[in-house]
Design goal:
Elements (H helix, E strand, L loop, with lengths): L3 E4 L7 H5 L10 E6 L6 H4 L9 E5 L7 H14 L6 E6 L1 H13 L11 E2 L9 E5 L13 E3 L4 E5 L7 E4 L9 H19 L6 H18 L6 H20 L5 H13 L3 H9 L7 H13 L14 H12 L2 H8 L3 H4 L2 H9 L2
The protein binds nicotinamide-adenine-dinucleotide (NAD) and zinc ion.
Length: about 350
Amino acid sequence: MVSRIVFGRGSFNQLGDIISPKRLNSKAPFIFLVDDVFKGNPDITSRIPLAYDDQLIYVSAKYEPKTSQVDELVEKIILTHKDRPSGIIGIGGGTILDLAKAVSIMLTNGGEAKDYQGWDLVKTPAIYHVGVPTISGTGAEVSRTTVLTGPDKKLGINSDYTPFDQVILDPELTKTVPKDQWFYTGMDCYIHCIESLNGTYLNAFSQSYGEKAYDLCKEIFIEDSLSKSEAQDKLMMASWHGGMSIAYSQVGVAHAMSYGLSYLLGTKHGIGNCIVFDHLEEFYPEGVKLFKQMKEKHDIKLPQGICADLGDDEFDTMIDVAMGLEPLWENAIGKNWKQVITRAKLKSLYQQM
Ligand code: NAD
Ligand code: ZN
C-alpha cells in the first residue's frame, strides 16, 4: 500500500515541503514527469518546486505508456545526471503515474522494462516516488502495478516496490479535465467496482472498498446533488477506493477485452473499457444498465464500429491478448471459465464493437 497520503484542495502546494527532506544531496535531483497538457499553464508549472539540478520532463499522455518509453526516459535521466535521482514525481493521469512508477523501478533494476512485466519480478526497491493525480478514476495512484505495452504483451509491472511512497490527492487539479475524458476515466473506476464486486475473488477487504467507490460513483454520475468541487473531491476518493478494491481482488471481462483493443488498435484505457462494457449485459446486467443511464445522462457518444474492418488475424491477436489474462477470467467467470469463454465467443463480442 501507499505509505503516505495527503488529501485536500490546494494540497499540491505542500509538494516542496514534502519532498525536500528526501533530497539525498544537491547533485541528486528530483525528476518531475509532468503531463504535457500542463505546458504553459502557470497554475500548475509555477507550483512545481524545482531546485538545484532538478529536471522537469514533459510527457505526452496521448498514447498508452510503452516499455520502450520507460527505457528511453531512464536513459535520458542517467545520461543527464551523474548522481542517481533523489526521487521521481509523476504529475498527471494514469499514463504519467504509471510511467513515473516504472521509471523509479528501472533506475535501480538492470535490464529493460519489458523484463519486469509480470508478477513480483522486481528484486530491488525503486527510488523514492511520488504520485500527484490530475484526473480521477484509474486508481493508478494507489495500485501495485504499472500497466505497460511491451513488444509482445500489454501487462503491468506488479510488485511490492511499485506503489508510490507518497501520494498527494488534490482534487482541484482535476478541474480542467474535459468532459468526455472525465467520463471515460471516471467509468474506469465504476467498472473496477462492478468487476470486483461481481467477481469470484471478492472478499471482505475488496468488498468494503468496492461498495464505497460504487456508491460514490452513483452519487457523482447519477444523482444531481453535488457541487462541482464536491464531485471532484468525491471522484478522487472513488478512484482511490476502486483501486484499493481491485488490489485485493481482480478486474474482469471489460478489462481483459479492453487490453486486446488497446494492444491492437492503441485504444486508450478509459474509452476502451467503456466501448467494451457497453456490450457486456450478459456478464454484468445491473452494472451495464446503470452504465447506459450514466452515458445517456451525460450525453456521451461512444465510437461505434471500431472492429468493423478488422481481418481474422487481427481478431486473433486481440483474442490472444484477452485470453492470456487468465486471472481476470477466473475472477469474472470462475475456475471453469474456459468452458464459457471460447475464441468464437470473444470474436462475436468484438465484432459488435
Ligand atoms: P491519461 O493519463 O491517459 O490522460 C487522459 C487525457 O487527459 C490526456 O489527454 C491528458 O493529457 C488529459 N488530462 C489529464 N489530467 C488533466 C487535467 N487536469 N486537465 C486537462 N487534461 C488532463 O488518463 P487516465 O485515464 O487517468 O489514465 C489511463 C492510463 O492509466 C492507461 O495507460 C491505463 O493503462 C492506466 N491505468 C493504470 C492502472 C494502474 O493500476 N496502474 C489502472 C488503470 C489504468
Ligand atoms: Zn482500469
